[in-house]
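This section describes the prediction task in plain terms. A model, or a person checking by hand, is given the sequence of a single protein chain and must write out its three-dimensional structure as a string of tokens. No templates, partner chains or ligands are provided. The sample shown here is typical of the held-out split.
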Amino acid sequence: MSKEIAIKNLIFVDCEGHGPAPTLNDAVAFEFGAVAYPSKQTFHGTGATKETFEDFDKWIASQKKL
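The expected answer:
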């Protein structure tokens, strides 16, 4: 008999920095995407600004309600 584990509310994030080195990235060109599992809802953020991360925080909170 196999046991299944219910996995939910996972969020996969991919960050992309654009610059010559990790510590020298262009904050304006910074972008990242996220996919929620199992809903497959997505988020795309651009620019390393407070507003971008506040939007991401709201998106994460919205995923808890699904």
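For orientation: The longest strand covers residues 10-16.
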